[in-house]
Amino acid sequence: MGQMRHVLLLLAFIQIVVIAAETDGRDRGCTFRLIVINLTVYNLRMLTGTNLMGQLSGDIGSLTELETLSLTNCGLYGPIPGAIGSLQQLIFLDLNSNKFSGKIPNSIGNLSNLYYLDFTGNQLDGSIPVSVGTLPGLDMLHQAKHFHLGMNQLSGTIPPELFNSDMSLIHVLLDNNKLTGSIPSTLGLVKSLEVVRLDRNSLSSPLPTTLLNLTNVLELYLSNNLLTGPMLNLTAMNLLSYLLAFYVRMMEHTHLQGPIPVNLFSIPDLQKVVLSNNQLNGTLNIGTTYSNELQYIDLQNNSFTIFQPITGGQSITLLLDGNPICENTNSVARSYCTVAPSNSSYSTPPNNCSQVSCGSNQVASPHCKCAYPYTVSIFFMTLSSLDLGNSSYYSALEELLIQKFQSSELPVDSISLSNPTMESAGYLELTLEVFPSGEDHFNQTAISMLGSVLVNMTFDPPAAFGPFYIISQPYPYAANWDPVLGSGGAPQLKAAKQFFFEELKKYTNSFSEANAIGSGGYGKVYKGTLSSGQMIAIKRARKDSTQGGLEFKTEIELLSRVHHRNLVTLLGFCFDQGEQMLVYEYIPNGTLMDSLSGKSGIRLDWMRRLKVAIGAARGLVYLHEDANPPIIHRDIKSNNILLDESLNAKVADFGLSKIKVDSKRSYVSTQVKGTLGYMDPEYYMTQQLTEKSDVYSFGVLMLELITARKPIERGKFIVREVRNVMDKTKVLYNLQEILDPAIGLGKTLEGLEKYADLAMRCVEEAGADRPTMGEVVKEIEDIMQLAGMNPNAESVPTSSSTFDEVSKGSSHLPYSEDAFGYSGSFPPSTVKSK
């Protein structure tokens, strides 16, 4: 009951977001992520251009067990509902890169378990909410590690009350807003801070000395503000690896002033100093004990008048253009006074696949394989000081990503990082291409899992790379599921793959007639060969097929999660370009009907027929007793029993199958569907489907096995015909006249009488009088032992001439002309009692 509740919660949430959704026609890489507490797998991510484009309903507040809510880059707009504040279990709240407007709700402060808060890249305005009296605020989030509020339109001052010593924040990102006033001294109380971004605002006043208390800060951004007064001696912040710019807008002449402390350049691991566009003055002295890692100093457009030459052999890029010392033609600083070259675009080294020619929209991977890569843009929020030409950074990131993908057992061949660009907000943007392994594209399941790995990394970013977020590009190369034709959402797959129409076309030589191995009311079956060499059978529906999207989806979902040697294995499906196709393992000897009718060229003796019966029965027992939840096949017939190379029986075609969700009820109420002649009369009359309905169909199949007659032939019903001639006082119950001669008449048919008894019990009018499939299996095993057979043997001894291999040169195909028969629903007026 508890699990069902979680399912209902999930469905309710999907309704809230999707029902009110609008589409604006734009492709969008929307990441949707939801986790409900105590639910093993309920991560739903849509990364293929989904356009939600709706408002987030306040009804979301009823999902009180949510732990994670992530809706990234989904085009959502309107206010953030205050009802989110009632989700007391919420740990991750990520609404990055949408169009939310209005104020940040004060109620967010009620989320006492919140670890991660990300509203980056929206249109939020107003002040940052803090608690006042009984009104909550963000200052109450003592468990939070991440405040990501950059790239909005937040205004007013940064409230001093926002920070306190009880907080455990490591990231505070308030950049690219409209914040004014001074930097609050209370920021220095949060000693756990590692990254602080306050740049690109309109902050003024001198820097508070309490910044020196932040001894764990790795990256500090204060550029593009209106700061005044002298710069601080930041050497106390001995973990500062990058002094990331104290840019000031060239306006109102209120800039940082005074000299630079000489020991600034001796900060351990310091690589880059950017202090351009200020009013720093006096003597510029780099000193003699500067950091061994120091590579770049940008002091352009300041007021330095004296320069002490750099000593030591270390190569340092120094930019001094726009300082008075550059006006002195005899100054030693003249060599540093050239204008800095533009670093607006960069690219990582290309791969060595220049000789590889790939098809349309395909890309050569680093291993020179043509494929359709999954592409995302990664935005790093704290790497604006990175030397974009430094290949060691990309190598480290590639190694980390490959490790993450491999540990998740994803089919990834290789990855490529390219186009590092410093975009306008001061974030480093990288393009990541992920290339598939084995095939030339990812299926939908793999795309979701790739997105999952990347999204999870954003929640707990590696320290070396700092906070980041991803925006995925639409991936049109995995077959999409049409929600209208496919009766709702895509199938929930366990072990099946989505195929492109074009690749199945290639595997079947454009669905050539030479590869056709069967046809019927549903469509045709084609033989194909995967690139790996594996043989497959592709069941392709006609455009006017009577099987609807629901049956198609049912068969995919059921077959992808059931695995038994007596069930046909589903390898995948195609729902692309208006096609409905199922891809199975190739079963070389076709259907049981083909063999019984002689079309396949295979002749079955008594022992072989017992082997077929026990195999089909065991497949049904698995469905009834071992599958969880149990499955009722609902369409057992000779056309749906396939024979492999050893004539092992495999139950196929699950298009009409039903799952028994409610274990307390003995039946499933459902519209009558099935195949004439095999259908349980009790089910037809009551519309109550049970496992005993499959038992009835199997009983008919047992009679078909020994007579080789169709269930209804020339107006005669096989069950009535057997019952009419059956005489238990005579040899073989007097069945010789209706037995198939190929069974071995004239030879000893040990156990045939018991077999006939069992079949007739299976077709009793009342389900309660029929055995279970488990009991059927036990009785067939006993019959096999009477016939001198081992029920568990792989091979079966044959009579000398009663079993023939497929005739050489035979024109017969292993799938019959009517390989699918007629399956469907039957209004009462169309079915006559037999």
Automatic annotation (TrEMBL):
Signal found in the keyword field: yes
Region (Disordered): 790-834
SUPFAM superfamilies: L domain-like, Protein kinase-like (PK-like)
Residues that hold ATP according to the record: 543
Broad class of where this protein is predominantly found: membrane
UniProt name for this protein: non-specific serine/threonine protein kinase
Signal peptide feature range: 1-20
Polar residues bias: start-end ranges: 792-810
Gene3D superfamilies, sorted: Phosphorylase Kinase, domain 1 (3.30.200.20), Ribonuclease Inhibitor (3.80.10.10), Transferase(Phosphotransferase) domain 1 (1.10.510.10)
Record GO terms (molecular function): ATP binding; protein serine/threonine kinase activity
Lineage start: Eukaryota, Viridiplantae, Streptophyta, Embryophyta, Tracheophyta
Enzyme kind, highest EC tier: transferase
Membrane topology: Single-pass type I membrane protein
GO cellular component annotations of the record: membrane
